[in-house]
Amino acid sequence: MAFRRSRTAGLAGYSDAALLLARLVIGAFLIWGVWDNIESTARMAEFARFLGSHGFPQPKWMALVSVWAQFACGVAFVLGLATRWAGLLCAVHFAVAIAMVDAKLGIRGAFPATSLILFGLLFATLGAGRYAIDAMFARR
């Protein structure tokens, strides 16, 4: 009995391109999502008040940590630099967001953060793919 190759098996050859596209979209989204906080002290203060209203300790400090962690993950994903570590950081960061804030919003409300956890875990386990700075270092 001869086995036929699946018609979708050829799609595996595009996995590096798919990882690149996912990294660019997720990374750009993370950067865009926090840029107003980086650019405006008023928006950062508003975010700190939001965190305080949800029971975060030291909300001013936590706002800074949250914003810069998201920004760093976004830049790392776009560049494909330290992608596995950025993926872990992203997953942990948004797990805290769900535990402290989004769990109260139900499934629909928690879906964006859940998606970012899953993408973070994918990047942590799969890495950045061929089209990344990480791949350049791996070849050396």
Please specify the SSE layout and strand pairing.
Layout: H1 15-39, H2 41-53, H3 59-79, H4 83-100, H5 106-126, H6 133-139
Protein architecture, described:
- Helices cover 75% and strands 0% of the residues.
- With 140 residues, it is mostly helical.
Helix content: over 70%
* Helix and strand run: HHHHHH
Radius of gyration: 18 Å
The computed structural class is mainly alpha
The low-pLDDT segments are none
What's this, in brief?
With 140 residues, the chain is mainly alpha-helical. The chain contains 6 helices and no strands.
Structure characteristics:
140 residues, 6 helices, globular
